[in-house]
Amino acid sequence: MYETEELVKRIAEGIQEKKGKDIVVADLTDTDNSVCKYFVICEGNTPTQVAAIADSVNDYVRIHLGVKPTVVEGLRNARWVAMDYSDVLVHIFVPEDRTFYNLENLWADARLNLIPNLD
Fold first, then answer.
1. pLDDT single digits (tens) 39-74
2. What is 4-115's CATH topology?
3. Which pTM was predicted?
4. Rg of the chain's alpha carbons, rounded to an integer?
């Protein structure tokens, strides 16, 4: 069995594998009535890159932890892909949709952890 923090780490590595950027981990563990423990939010430059990041996260987590998401939504247009790992929800956006939905501020009392971009 894996720890939720290990899942978050592997998700971030899967994102970085496809050059996903501006990764934010919103820690909701101390937030009442939250839908999960963590949001992992990132972006890709184009819908093609967003889909590639989602595939990479799926593969990376499955290979390293043996876990698959229960639901993946948004692959058809790949402007906002949501992946549900129960305790962790992954949101992969194109930049303009990320700005519009502004999920980082949806949970005002969440602790935000920024993961540096890889160059």
1. 999 999 999 999 999 999 999 999 999 999 999 999
2. Beta Polymerase; domain 2 (3.30.460)
3. 0.94
4. 13
